[in-house]
## 1
Amino acid sequence: MSSTEAPITPQVEADLAIAKRGCSELLVESEFTRKLARSHATGKPLRIKLGLDPTAPDIHLGHTVVLNKMRQLQDLGHTVIFLIGDFTSMIGDPSGRNATRPPLTAEQIHDNAKTYYAQASLVLDPAKTEIRYNSEWCDPLGARGLIQLASRYTVARMMERDDFTKRFKGGVPISVHEFLYPLLQGYDSVVLKADLELGGTDQKFNLLVGRELQKEYGQEPQCVLTMPLLEGVDGVDKMSKSKANYIGITESPESMFGKLMSISDTLMWKYFELLSFRSMDDILQLQKQVQEGMNPRDTKVALAQEIVARFHSQQAARDALSGFEARFRDGAIPDEMPEVQLGAAPLGILKVLREAGLVASGAEAQRNVEQGGVRVDGDRIEDKALQLPAGTYVVQVGKRKFARVTLTG
């Protein structure tokens, strides 16, 4: 350590551990440690950036993985910048895509952005959050500025992106405007003078472009912290509205509680690590108790109550638990059950029963409904013509046949 570097104190190490909890990657850890030490020594908070494009009007628990990390860093005293990508949304992020995504209109972006920050404020501390829109500096950039910015990054570097490489080799078109997305996201970091940028693992390339552009503009490069993509309630695909496996943070307490209770016992621990505000010591203690014989359902109830209370209230969490227990008290729901994914929602209940393997024929499905032996999420089904919309459901036939069925659109 040089004489000008701040010391790495136990408090710096503790803060680093909080930053790294649940993360996939921290680049470059030694650089971020020095930034933390300098912040402690000078009292100057780090500038921590998270950019979200308002491509949909609502935020789900998958989005809150990075928001939770921002809140943890915010509680350590650092400056959180919640950046709404109203300009870059008009381009469309090509990350992880195998085809060009249609850009949103200005009206769609405006409508979606209206609810974004209000919902994010359910996680972040609004009084300590700096909210920005990247149209502030991207609009004035103009054609001349955009050309000058583009001159600072090469096509060869851009083609290092896996999705661009795969599309190029597969003969799938890549529009020139898609190259502008990571370039402008990186320019956001230059304008905001970010010390750390967060994102999902699918954003790694874009975040690293910010590091390179900051160097080009003579700034200290930001560090990059990526968070895992959270699987949805089906335990298969990442949480997404298009996959109908999501839990929206503005859903009713009952819906939120029921969906959290439907996740598998294995996935529950990932939800604890990425969504719970409990300490890792507490979570490890819960794991030990389950290993020693405690019913994992009791642990899942604790998780569901914590999440519902955060986005609604403690009373709402208690009421959701009472309602859940009332629905299921007539029969014990197993902790593990077959996972089935079906398409073409909405789908008739009789067809759901057949395709989920819960009955052998349509006649058997019809007979079970008529006899009151079919339940969906604990509610007895009496309408043979019932159509289930996209979503995830615990479907029960009789006392012993269960399946967790996900219907996609």
## 2
Amino acid sequence: MKSRIPVVLLACGSFNPITNMHLRLFEVARDHLHQTGMYRVIGGVISPVNDNYKKKDLVAAHHRVAMVRLALQMSDWIRVDTWESEQAQWMETVKVLRHHHSELLRSLPQEEGVDPDKAVSPVPAAVPELKFLCGADVLKTFQTPNLWKDEHIQEIVEKFGLVCVGRAGHDPKGYIMGSPILQRYQHNIHLVREPVQNEISATYIRSALRQGQSVKYLLPDSVIAYIKNHNLYSRDSSQKGNGTRNSEGKTRQGGPATSPPSSS
């Protein structure tokens, strides 16, 4: 494994709330990359979207970050990052990738024995790749007119690469064949099959919570307890505002706050 290319997986989205399916995405993506014999996944990052995305029923970022942090108590390799959610404005996905790539390079240990007085900068011993983890539904949005800038799609697939987990009702191979950009860089797109079809939808979960229905086993118990303690997603909280954004999400060029499957 040491000779393989190190990889960090980055998932962007609403996580409103985070579900067991979101966590599962990381696991199946890591298994797939390991099975290629080329990669060694060294970490995963979840980046909840900024409140200024203004998606309907979007709970305030501090709640969504707190729920992700609770959900990740059971993981020893995935972490939540607050940079995107703490910015003054909504950030395009490619900018989030650029930020995390820069942070990844900055955190690398430098080679030993380099003379600090020399003008040449030390070179990291191994440069990990940052790959964008998403679901097939996100891959499909690349085809939506005026939703993503072509240059942003190209930068994502050319510079970073995609790990796309399949989802029922979607044809990721067809999406790639239907896009000249995705076709050109398909060697950098990893299509992952999820053997256990899991269609947990955050939209459904919010609806169930508003109706007082059980969501046990769909979310980590710690997240369910947090939702209850802070009265999130209930009918009363929706009427009172409860730190949610009630305006409809808007189409923005350059890419949406892209969500993994069911992170709506």
## 3
Amino acid sequence: MLVHICCSVDSHFFISELKKLYPKERLVGFFYDPNIHPYAEYELRYLDVKRSCDKLGLSLHKGEYDFTLWMQAVRGLEDEPERGARCENCFEMRLEEAAKFALKIGEKSLTTTLLTSPKKDFSQLENALRAQCSPFGVEFIAPDFRKNGGTQRQFELAKKEMLYHQNYCGCLYALAKQRQGRGFVDELMSPLSHQILPNSIEERTKLFKELGKLEKRGLKFKLEREKFLNYRLLSAKITADKKPIKAHIMFYSHFKLQKSAFTVNLKDGQGGVLKILKDELVFWDFEYFNGLVRRKFKDFNELLKKPLSVEKEIKLRTKHFGAYNLSPIIICERLPQGKIEIFAKSEIYFDTRERLVKEANA
């Protein structure tokens, strides 16, 4: 039997129950989910699905990530609600490919772990399975493991196995609606500098890669959830006499004003540091900053391409300005001169993330 897999939280429980229901059946996993966006999230979910399948002794095949094809399949249905026509088209596209793959590798039946997702319509999925399996002569299997407390047991198992529990189904349009009141979509943000931002997809990927390594080594650990104050720089542009200047803005630089304008004279900068009362701005020139970090960077461009990690920037900020400081710290190659304008927008917000805690013998 081919099992189409959507995510580890759904699949781990579903496959465990499927093994009980079909003890003599050979189960093969197929991860085909081009609906997941962005690509980094798709890779993170595959990473944890692979980990889950390894635990369950299942071979796993990875389908093609054809996001363009998925976009075409749901075109015109962008504003449909969850469980609406967009979901129906999405299921049909993915299950059609799964049915084709089942035929290709000689499997005679097909099911999907989507059936156990409490956010999906069971009848819609059952109908999609039936419709897509029929043309290929593949038998469809649609067990309902949600009944009799199944959903509760599913989440208990996911917690016990420390599986990656995503906070949206994967679809770009559902994600946008889910984050509508926030003003920005965190999952779609990734800095050009490749810094790993707190609670970003990249940080979660790093966490679950480390978790997998500890498991393979047989070391004990646990996941703990913590609340913290997160930050995102949404946009920033700095000009001197109307000409844009290069700059690196340190983490937790919060701009209360979306536009600041002031004039700087040569005498204002003291020893590579410039402080402006408006919006509590602080400028460091590259030479001053590089001295603080023991000449880590050969030149300013290296800093722009590969800055300090977020953790090191926070330590540097705390060391020189104290805890809870949110003043914008802007690093330029040279201190700006003339008429300076800053157009910037940032967000500080409460967030929750998982933290890996190694136990004594780890």
## 4
Amino acid sequence: MAEQTEQLDFLWEGKDKTGKINKGVFPAKSEAVAKAELRRQGYRVTKIKLKPKPLFKSRVKAITPGDIAVFSRQLATMLKAGVPLVQSFDIVGKGHENPSMQELLLSIKADIEGGDTLAEALNKRPLYFDELFCNLVEAGEQAGVLETLLDKIATYKEKTESMKKKIKKALTYPIAVVAVAFIVTTILLVFVVPVFADLFKSFGADLPAFTQMVVAMSEWMQVYWWVIIVSVVATVYTFGYFKKRSRNFNHFLDRVLLKVPVVGLILNKSAIARFARTLSTMSAAGVPLVDALESVSGACGNIVYADAVMKMREDVSTGHRLQFAMSQTQLFPHMVQQMIAIGEESGSIDAMLSKVADFYEEEVDNLVDNLSSLMEPIIMVILGTLVGGLVVAMYLPIFKMGSAI
């Protein structure tokens, strides 16, 4: 394959055949190539220079799963319209707003021009295209239905990303409020309570037990505030370290989260929805069940379910039916097992899995909405207890002195 030369942008000005002055930006490998191409298009170039790069480069924008979902939909639409694959990548890539995504798509286009299949080109970029994505694309290329499979991938990506965003939104709100409450409480203990404590000392009277406890906490924090900061940083670092490197820790964490009231129910149902949606998509693509289950295990979003799916794969590979393998895990509800059994009997397992996915995605939506409504009064109680408790502790001595007068 010929070596790829970086495209440069040239600012140019020139006259067309009618004598009208035109100007613009022209991408080319060199100034000579730019001039030759503009001359071929009927322009007499009077000025041309390399477009200067900005003094301060904007921060590189990361490629998100949402970008991949949009790309899948756009590419499927292009192929359905009869646009050749290489040209489709050129159109989608150059039209993308994210420079990082644009660079990724154009590099894939270069690999395809060099003789790679789309699946081979995607396999070289596992950071953005997982095994499931590549397997489906490969199945689509082999069966000659790439545009159909890309459409299914786009639908799958859009639904899973939508569900992830809703769950993150539901969990982010209470975490953010609790963090703010912690910061406000710390500020009150470090800066406000000492003022009241000095005032109370000037009175010389005995303080109520609750007020004494708050003052003692304030004095401790003024001296050992660094202990809290170090503890928080160390906890976050340790959590992140083991989350990235320890499968046993992740397994323990996922198992605990599945048992948390309300949140655990959401995570359980979302894992089932992902399982059903992914297996439905792969089954519709004609991927063998044993191979599909291996890819599905990584798409569940929970190690407990991932391990269960791999156990199901072992059972299916030894001749057991999928419904029986699911029942052995004791993770899937009876309704799901019966739907799978009906699908296996009727030969429409992909349609049944799609219905299961639709049902559980709707269940997750409802639970997330309910969680948001449920968390509001709980958060108010937490804030009222923390901040209100400090205020009451500071005013108790004043009330006591008032009653004594």
